[in-house]
């Protein structure tokens, strides 16, 4: 098969994987970024790193583990970059994501909005733990994505949930 | 909020996001990855130029030693300068290796640490630089020979020479003190910010995050999660 043919297959595979797991991207992006314009930029960066890294993905770990790693790494880095960020946006076609902003906050019920607000107030690393936990990932998977021990993940989840409990007591 | 249904609440957020977002994945086919790598390329070029400079300087000082083999003053001075150049080039090679092996599919803590340590490399380079202070005589000997063709050690009287050696000795604790002061914790200080060409606040932020990662990594004593939670 020619190089171009391989590339086409690779992109086809990746498109299918992203399509099946796009919820990961939406939730990670939404948790690390509030501004709709920035969300578009962040999705672009994540997509770029998916495309760029998929060739190296060895399928030894789950594809969702790989997606979480890329999405979280890019989002945390994006979150930490300040004004200089725009200079470095990778060239991507516009409109790779369409976000209907008016539907975001208004249509969210109170509990969802509260949970989202709580998660956005966690520090970057605990936020990653919580996103994965709420997505139903096992402690083992969370530990693999973050490079922590499973017991450490368990303790962190326990502490975050305690914080959450306190948070809602006071609201 | 009912905390036992956290995941259900979270799934409701997912549903909302699914409805309000639409990924146009077909556009991925149009992405030109080569064009997107400019940022990385500029970092790689910067490091490549630094490495080339230090390696050439190291090679030049080795050549200086070889061509002045009959005079131990020159051999020692050239050896010190060559050694320093090679240490600096080794540090730059390490930085280049870190940049080239950035892979966003690495575990989150590993990658974030790597990104932060690339950002803080400038402090390491300054630390290497200050250790040349006690060896300033090597520069003097080399410059005297190259510019004026004179052997500084041979023409200087013993008392002036002794003072220079004493000064070199005194500069060791100064270099040690500066090495310690060139500490990530001082990145917000004006003088260090000046040395860092105004990038002190960014560096400070990077180092703060490195500390956060270290704290986050610590495995605390297991706290048992109640089943009912």
Main attributes of the structure:
heterodimer, A: 171 residues, mainly alpha, Rna Polymerase Sigma Factor, Chain: A, Arc Repressor Mutant, subunit A, 9 helices, globular, B: 229 residues, 72% helix, 1% strand, transmembrane helix (chain B)
For the largest beta-sheet of chain B, the strand count, sense and barrel status come to:
none
Task: Give the helix/strand class of chain A.
Answer: mainly alpha
Largest interface, with Cβ-Cβ < 8 Å?
Answer: A-B, 75 and 56 residues
CATH topology of the largest domain in chain A, anyone? Rna Polymerase Sigma Factor, Chain: A
Q: Tell me the span between the first and last alpha carbons of chain A.
A: 61 Å
Q: Which descriptor suits the 3D outline of chain B?
A: elongated
* Secondary structure tally: strands of chain A: 1
What's the domain count of chain A?
A: 2
Give the helix level of chain A as a range of percent: over 70%
Structural class of chain B: mainly alpha
Along the chain, the helix and strand elements of chain B come as: HEHHHHHHHHHH
The CATH class label of the largest domain in chain A is Mainly Alpha
Please give the oligomerization state of what you see.
heterodimer
**How many domain modules of chain B?**
1
Helix content of chain B: over 70%
Query: How large, in whole angstroms, is the Cα Rg of chain A?
Result: 17 Å
Keywords (chain A): Sigma factor, Transcription, Transcription regulation
Family (chain A): Belongs to the sigma-70 factor family. ECF subfamily.
Domain RNA polymerase sigma-70 region (chain A): 18-83
Domain RNA polymerase sigma factor 70 region 4 type (chain A): 114-164
């Amino acid at each position: 098969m020619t190089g171009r043919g391989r590339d086409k297959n690779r992109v086809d595979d990746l498109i299918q994987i992203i399509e099946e797991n796009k919820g990961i991207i939406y939730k990670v992006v939404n948790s690390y970024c509030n501004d709709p314009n920035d969300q578009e930029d962040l999705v672009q960066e994540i997509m770029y790193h998916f495309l760029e890294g998929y060739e190296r993905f060895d399928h030894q770990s789950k594809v969702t583990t790989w997606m979480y790693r890329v999405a979280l790494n890019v989002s945390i880095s994006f979150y930490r970059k300040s004004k200089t960020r725009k200079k470095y946006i990778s060239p991507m076609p516009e409109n790779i994501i369409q976000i209907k902003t008016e539907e975001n906050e208004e249509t969210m019920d109170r509990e969802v909005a509260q949970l989202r607000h709580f998660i956005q107030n966690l520090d970057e690393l605990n936020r990653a733990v919580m996103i994965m936990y709420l997505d139903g990932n096992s402690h083992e998977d969370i530990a693999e994505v973050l490079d922590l021990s499973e017991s450490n993940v368990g303790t962190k989840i326990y502490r975050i949930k305690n914080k959450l409990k306190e948070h809602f007591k006071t609201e | 909020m009912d905390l036992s249904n956290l995941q259900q609440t979270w799934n409701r957020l997912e549903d909302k996001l699914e409805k309000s977002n639409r990924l146009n994945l077909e556009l991925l086919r149009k992405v030109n990855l080569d064009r997107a790598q400019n940022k990385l390329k500029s970092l790689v070029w910067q490091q490549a130029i630094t490495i080339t400079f230090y390696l050439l300087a190291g090679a030049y000082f080795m050549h200086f030693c070889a061509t002045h083999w009959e005079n131990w003053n020159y051999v020692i001075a050239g050896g010190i300068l060559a050694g320093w150049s090679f240490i600096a080039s080794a540090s730059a090679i390490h930085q280049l290796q870190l940049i080239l092996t950035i892979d966003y599919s690495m575990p989150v803590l590993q990658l974030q640490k790597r990104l932060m340590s690339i950002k803080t490399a400038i402090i390491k380079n300054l630390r290497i630089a200050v250790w040349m202070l006690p060896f300033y005589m090597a520069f003097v000997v080399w410059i005297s020979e190259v510019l004026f063709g004179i052997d500084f050690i041979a023409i200087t009287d013993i008392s002036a020479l002794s003072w220079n050696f004493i000064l070199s000795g005194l500069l060791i604790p100064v270099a040690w003190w500066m090495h310690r002061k060139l500490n990530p914790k001082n990145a917000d200080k004006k003088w260090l910010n000046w040395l860092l060409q105004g990038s002190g606040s960014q560096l400070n932020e990077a180092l703060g995050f490195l500390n956060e990662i270290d704290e986050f990594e610590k495995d605390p004593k297991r706290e048992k999660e109640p089943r009912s939670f």
